[in-house]
Amino acid sequence: MMIPSKVLVASIFILALILSSCNLPVGxxxxxxTATLAVVTPSLTATLEPTxxxxxxxxxxxxxxxxxxxxxxxxxFVPSTxxxxxxxxxxxxxxxxxxxxxxxxxxxxxxxxxxxxxxxxMTYIPDVDIVSFNLGRDxxxxxVSIELVGKDPxxxxxxxxxxxxxxxxxxxxxxxxxxxxxxxxEWSVANVIVAQDSNHDTGxxxxxxxxxxxxxxxxxEIIFDGSIGLGDDPDLAWVRINAGQYATVQFAFKxxxxxxxxxxxxxxxxxxxxxxxxxxxxxxxxxxxGSPVGGDPFYPLKALFAIDNxxxxxxxxxxxxxxxxxxxxx
Length: 330
Prior knowledge:
mainly beta; eight-stranded antiparallel β-sheet; five-stranded antiparallel β-sheet; 3 helices
């Protein structure tokens, strides 16, 4: 039997509606999510670094500083520890009048003779007060031994000891050997210098008397400094302390420095301690210097204090006995 065409078309339309209704959502559609994909592109210039952490960083411009080594100065000749003493040159001491804050005598400013082992307030310093000195020698060295009233050259006040050498006996010092603290009982060059007077003015205008005020420069050229190895001969001059009854301070210096003919004196100085101002009597007037002698119009001490020296003794020549600053002949 033939189905009418209108009926067939209507059936197909109804079937299509039923099928499409099965695919429709039962609720509202969710919003559309938009995702962005991040793409990491490796750099073509990337450099791989090691993962180990270094323990130290060294700058390419860094300067390597090494510890400073102590300079070693070899010595060919060391002075003897057994020194034969010479004849004693005796000095005035102030120990008996110290409680009276004065020197008994022996201070003659006009002729460069000092007996001033006192501070400016006239406090006595026994380690500046010289009792005597003497000269000995062996085949290499001269030995100058200085005896003090006190026994502590390392007194905290700070005391320089010195030996003056006058080569031709004219009263003008040619060389001075100076030692400064700290001192040791062993021979040492570490705190010793030797200086010379290059222009002959240690005595001012005259060899003995005060020429103050005189603008000289005293011992003006250092030729040896044991602390830094300055000088042609590292064994030139030495010092030690407490070497014996008559050697509270003892110097040793090579024979060649003084040869065989000279005059020699010694100094203890805890005051000015300026070898370029020697002789002090040519730099200061007596009024400026003051006096250690009670009753003197310039008493007490002023600019020139804490110093003691001794008259000079002649060695290797008889001389006339009238040489400037020479000890009186007996």
